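Apologies for my clumsy wording, but can you show me some protein sequence, whichever is easiest, together with the matching structure tokens, please?
=====
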Amino acid sequence: MTTGVLLEPAPERRVSLLPEQAETLLKKGITVLCESNAGNEAGMPDEAYTQKGIAVVGRNEVLQKSDIILSIHTLSDADLQLLKPGSILVGIYQPLYKYILLKQWALKSITTFSLDMVPRTTRAQSMDVLSSQANIAGYKAVLLAASIYPKYFPMLMTAAGSITPAKVLILGAGVAGLQAVATARRLGAVVEVFDTRPAVKEEVMSLGAKFVEVEGAADASKAGGYAVEQTPEYKQKQQQRIAEAAAKVDVIISTAQIPGKPAPVLITEEMLKSMKRGSVIIDLAAATGGNTAKTLNAQTVQYNGITIVGDSNLPSSVPSDASKMYGKNVFNFLQLIITKTGELNLNFEDDIVKGACITHNGKVVNEKVQTLLHAYESIGH
């Protein structure tokens, strides 16, 4: 069996598998092909792969000869034309947003495993790409904000006068949000955190931040760490509390997303107008619409003296460690579908394998994606 590692399209700088992880596959008797320059941006030139016994070849050869293709992002139509019949794709394909594209993949008889759909259970933690990459995003978001914000983050007492600490508001206390809390606190900022889940209050406070409470939130305990849709009454109270906090802070890190739906707009245009000039917002939910009324994905917007950075791909800015963590997630998942002797074994009785599988045998097999497709088709598309 052959596994192929593809070079990701710019501006992505990560790679799906580092040489030492690929070497472990070789020991199982699996041939590993790596597209030339795939690891360059992550600090792994072609020589690092060839030294481990991995063949470095052109993109077409990887696509034509591999049984399993590793690519973080979706493939182009031209790439799909070169795949072997029954090929398996493993990556982060966002099927809850790209379900039309994934249906087209199904029609090509491609088996697709999207690791952002791995169940968020204890057993699946070692394969949880969302958590491993969100950790990096939360850390880098604060550093990016600190580099843009025109003042210091920590409090300073000097002979030239005193500097008050920056005030940071973090929207969402998932993996990215909690890492942002920890990083902002290490930089000396005063931190407040808003989240619809009261259960995260203790974690937030343990990191030295204040938890902004809004009563009456819908139960999110079964949402896999995500936010859930809230009632109109709750949203009104939520907006009031966030508006009060936003008017006082210097930096906002927003991370709130709802699977399969646009990100909730938590910072309205009215709130933006009330914020201090020079304030900075880093919106990690930009790829699904953003948490502010003015966020644009992969762009930096200046609005009323405020800098709004829409960036859902911050892990790519730390390509070496992000690739290391992502590659470990991928390798652990491959352990579930490859036997110890290097043979393919798609065990759909395994909840992780089943949960991550989106297309198989010419069909969309994931229930959540099926539901979205049925809703899309029922309105006449």
